Structure formats: structure tokens, C-alpha cells
Amino acid sequence: MRKIVMFTLVVLVGISACSRREAPLLPNEKGTITLKFSRLPSSGEGELRSANAHKISCGLAAIDSAVVRVYHPGSTGSLDAVKGVPVSNQSDSIVVSIAATPGIGKKVTVELFEQQRMIYFGVDENVNVFLGQETHASIDAFWFGLVGFGTDATYLLEGEVFNLFWRRVPAATAYYLQESTTEDFSNVVYDVALTDTMITLTRNGGPHYFRVAPINPHTTGTFSPTLLVYVYGSPTITSVFPGSAARGEAILIRGTSLDYPGNYIEIGDVACVVLVDGPEEVVAVVPPTAYTGDLIVYGPLNPSGYVAPARFVVQLIAYITGLDLTTALDYQSMIQASGSRVRESGVKIVPYTSLETSDMSSFVLAIVGTDTGDDASWAGGVPERLDALRYSGAQIIGLGLGGNSYFREAGLFIGQTERKDDIDRWVFVNDWSDPIYNSIMQTPGNLLELYTFDVFRLSVYMDLATWPAGVIPHAKSSAGSNYHPLISENEGDLANPLENFLWGFAANPKNLTGDGRTCFMNVVELLFNASSKVVVPPGLTETGSLTSIRR
Q1: How many helices (H) and strands (E) does the chain have?
Q2: d(CA 40, CA 54)
Q3: What's the whole-number mean pLDDT along residues 203-215?
Q4: Which of 102, 167, 184, 238 is the most exposed place for a label (fewest CB within 10 A)?
């Protein structure tokens, strides 16, 4: 901790020649003013008192230079002499001797600096300099900054008048007021020099940051702490981060006038729950029934609402991945490009290592990547990861070996190990009226090319004569085969057979043919729309609102 000191400034006035007081003053004769700068211990940490009980505090190490100025007597007060010296924090006292012309009622000022910025200022307006005698004068050094800066209205509406005010500062001839739209004053929009200690203003909506510094002909003092005056106008939204999130996740909304009483925010006509509200930042939760749509702030100042610059994407589909992030991103791009087929839903990539800490119940559909498991285990064999997805209520599409592994761990028939693994690009269509083949032209021999070249293909064995209830084969590996690379299974609701779907191929979706992409997106759309989570629960009339205490 810095040592706290009191600055005692003693001016010694003398002569530089052995002349008598009555002797006539010669043009080149000078008197001498000596300033003694002393380090004295304070009576208490953090608070100092000079001779007139004015409070000052400073660490001596912070002061690195001092300047003494002497002015001629009279109303003009022209400068007679000036001298500056460095200040060492090792010195107990510093003596500054300055040659000055003798005279009655001279003004002497003392300025103490830190890195070329004046911190303290002292003045004596009546110092007499005589030939033939020494005169003592004491100068108190005051902090050259504002000790008070305030306003009568921190939060107000557009058009309302407010006042800024501050206390007078000794040695200040004026005050420099600055206004900025940013707290760091990187965007100063208004500055003015004032002789008064108050100004009356009105401002448009948004944040307004103010600060004031005392000035005199020689220097600008320390700026006051920043004062925020927030003016409420029509609410606006400038950004939302992130721009895509799952139901139940928090998002940060930035704008202006967001927390005005009565404001509320909606995503696609569903109200958000607000966790933290402020005039420029709001933390809100994506509603549990939200879909991709406009994010709008409504309120008494703008009943028609203000729409955010970009539509907010609600992630209703999860892609569970292992290490193959490239394939995950390509599936994400393909599905999100499908637009209205899945209500413009976003796809959230979820590493299987984070499943146990993720709320998977917010997703309508989950796609299990082929890189998430093998014949030994799924998701590293951690039961909590399986449970997080198994009991999420999401429809499931399993890809390749990882999908088969998940279904096996979940106890489903389509997860059995009695299967055939090979390299191929074709399937044999069982029934062209199957909705997974919508918009695909029937081909001779019922063969459908799904990929542009041969890729890994996993086909589950199922004897059609004894096929289990709830299991539907959608395509065979070849005519007459009992092995099925496209096969689905429900878990009790026979009216909704598309609950779990094994897409036995394992390849990057960029390698799909046009028909293959259509077929896969048909599966995605069918499972998505089969979910009960797609339907907005009836009777949801709560609009919600932002709550705020006006400050």
C-alpha cells in the first residue's frame, strides 16, 4: 500500500542582493521565492487534511513533478516567472527557488503532476515580494478534479428535461463537459466548455454517458467518474447471441429501451421468459413451444413491435456426433437448407460426450451419427448418455454402425447384431407408395441409387414371415433378401410407426444422389412431423413480460 502523505507548501520570499528595503528598485534586481515541498505523515489512512481542513489524499509516489508560477500584481495578472522541477518519491522535502520581480499582492500558484496530468493545484493571491526582507506564505494544494457530479434524473423518457450539476473546483475557470454514446468515450458526440456548474439537457432514446473536468488557462484537470443517463424511446433490437439455440436455452438480446415497464419479447408469437433485464441487454429463455421465426420486442412505447435484424432459428433437431465433425456440419447444412419441411428448424451438433449434461428433451428429432458407437458399446458405454437420449422423447434416426449400436443399447429390434455389412449404393424398394419415396420417380427393377458411389451399408436381418410388431422394412439390400438397410420401429404406438428409423448407410451427405437426398429428407420430415412436440399445446395464452424497476 502506498504511504499516504500531506502536502505542506511553504513559500519563502527573499532577496538575491544585500540591499536595504528603502533602496530604490533597480530594473534587473530580483527577489527569490522558495517553495518547500514536504512529506508529512497523515493522521489516518485514506484521509488527509491541510491547514484549512480541506480533505486531500494521494500517494507521494504518484506525484512526479511540480510547477510554480508567479504573476505580477494587478487585474491583468501577467506571468512574471515559472519553474518546474521533478519530484522524487525518495525525498522528504523539495525546495524550489524561483527568481521573481519584487511587488505587492503577487499571485503564486503550485501545480502537482502525475504523468503530465495535474492532480493538485494551490494558489495564494496575496504574496508580497520585498527587497531586503523574507516573507513566508502557506499554500494549500487542492485536488484539481470534481468532488461531486450528479443528475436529477438517471432514467427518463424522450423529451423529458434533466439537469447535470457539479461542485465548483478551486482554481477552475471553466468546466469541460463531454458526452459519449459509449462508456469508454470512444465516440464523443458532444463537448462544451461551461463557466456554470449546471446544464439543462434533453436527449433522444438510448444511453448517454457524461463526464466533467475542471479547466483553467494552464491545464485540464481530472475527469469525473462517468455518469449514465438513460433515455427511453421506442425499443429496438440490434443483435441476438447466439442467433440459433434450442428450446429452454438462454440467449442475450442487445438493443435499446428493452426493460421499459410493460415490454415483452416474443419468438414466433411465443413469449420468452426473461431471466435478466436491462435497458440495453436482456437475457431471455427460448420458449418451450417456440419455432424459428421473428424475434420481436413489444411495449407501451412501441405497441406495433420492433423486429430483430435476423430471424431467430430454434434448434429442434440434434445431431449426435463422435469425432467426425465434418459429416455433422454437412448434415446440419443439408437439413437447415430444407426450410419449411422441418419448420425452418436449426440443427444443434451435440458431442456424445456432453449428452449427460445436455437437456435433450427440447429436441423434436435426434440423428445419431455412425461415429457414436460400434458392436462393443455406444457413446463410450456411459449409461447416463444413453438415458439422456433414450428418455428425451425425441424421434430418432440412427445412421450406420452408430445408429445400430444405439438401438441395440435401447433394446430395440433394429439394433440387433444379426445383420449384413457390405459396400453398396443401392436399395431395393419394397413399396413405392411408402411416403419415404415421395417425389421420387419409380425405377425399373425397384432399384434406387442413394449414393453416387459405393459406401458402407449395414442391413438388419428380418424374416418377413415372422417380422415383429411395430417393425417396418422400407427397403431391402436386394430383391428377395431378408436384410434391410432402411427399417423403422415404433415402441407401442402402432398408429405412429415412425419413431425410430435405421438408415444403415454411413457416408457424408454430400455423396447422396438427388433421389438419395430426397429420400433421406422425407424420412427426416416424416419423423419430425410425427412427434407430439411439433404441436403447440392448446390453451397456451401466457404472453409474458419483461419486468423492470425504473431507476
Answers
A1: 4, 42
A2: 16
A3: 94
A4: 184
Using alpha carbons, select from 32, 206, 189, 166 the residue that is nearest to residue 102.
Answer: 32
CB atoms within 10 A of CB 223: 16
For residue 463, how far is the Cα from the chain centroid? 58
Cis peptide before 444 (omega within 30 of 0): no
Q: Where are the beta strands (DSSP E) in 268-418?
A: 270-271, 273-277, 281-285, 295-299, 302-307, 313-321, 346-351, 365-368, 395-399
Q: Which residues pair with 65 in a beta bridge?
A: 86, 113
Strand partners, 506: 456
Taking the complete model, does pTM exceed 0.70, yes or no?
Answer: yes
Q: Are 267 and 244 in contact (CB under 8 A)?
A: no
Alpha carbon of residue 482 to chain centroid: 57
The three cell numbers locating residue 73: 500584481
DSSP labels, 243-306: SEEETT-EEEEEEESTTSTT-EEEETTEEPEEEEE-SSEEEEE--TT--SB-EEEEETTEEEEE
Q: Write the pLDDT tens digit of every residue in 431-443.
A: 999 999 999 999 9
Q: pLDDT confidence of 533, banded at 50, 70, 90?
A: confident
Q: What is the mean pLDDT of residues 321-338?
A: 97
Name the CA dihedral angle for 38, 41, 47, 49, rounded to a multiple of 10 degrees: -50
Estimate the crossing angle of helix 400-409 against helix 383-390, to 10 degrees: 90
**Helix or strand (DSSP H, E) at 487:** strand 486-489
Q: What is the pLDDT of residues 68-104, one digit of tens each?
A: 888 888 877 789 889 888 877 655 566 777 778 888 8
Distance from CA of residue 252 to its chain's centroid?
Answer: 7
Contacts of 345 (CB under 8 A, 6+ apart): 291, 292, 313, 314, 315, 316, 317, 335, 336, 364, 528
Q: Which of 8, 16, 97, 104 is nearest to 56 (CA)?
A: 8
| Intra-chain end-to-end CA distance of the chain, in Å | 36
Whether the CB-CB separation of 69 and 109 falls below 8 Å is answered with yes
Residue 537 predicted with pLDDT over 70: no
Length, in residues, of the chain: 551
C-alpha grid cell, residue 138: 502557506
H runs (alpha helix) in 133-225:
none
Per the CB < 8 A criterion, the answer to whether 476 and 430 are in contact is yes
